[in-house]
Design a protein that fits this description.
Layout lengths: L1 E2 H8 L15 H10 L7 E6 L5 E5 L6 E6 L11 E4 L17
Parallel strand pairs: 1-5
Antiparallel strand pairs: 2-3, 2-4, 3-5
Length: about 100
């Protein structure tokens, strides 16, 4: 798991519009932009809202808690990459996630 600054530095989100927008509202829009830029789907990330008011960038197309999609210059590789965009306590990034109830 990496921070927003690390995500921006490593993956380099692209500007999608002349107005400076980096967030596409729909996957199809992000995918079309990527293809027009000569990139494949491994450059598209889902921006997801978490229960703790955090935002996360997750590789590929997701449908739950999505606020939009980002296209990056560098592709994701494994599909396991995650970047936390906002979190009140960044120290929690080093902690193991808690198991779901009943696990």
């Amino acid at each position: 798991m990496i921070t927003e600054d690390q995500f921006d530095s490593i993956y380099q989100p692209m500007t999608l519009t002349p107005h400076g927008d980096v967030l596409a509202p729909h996957y199809k829009d992000a995918r079309a932009f990527a293809e027009q830029s000569g990139l494949d789907e491994n450059h598209v990330w889902s921006i997801m809202e978490g229960e703790d008011d955090s935002l996360s960038a997750c590789p590929g197309h997701h449908v739950v808690n999505i606020i939009g999609f980002v296209v990056t210059r560098k592709p994701w590789e494994t599909g396991n990459e995650v970047a936390v965009y906002m979190k009140s306590d960044m120290d929690d990034l080093d902690m193991e996630p808690e198991p779901a109830p009943g696990m």
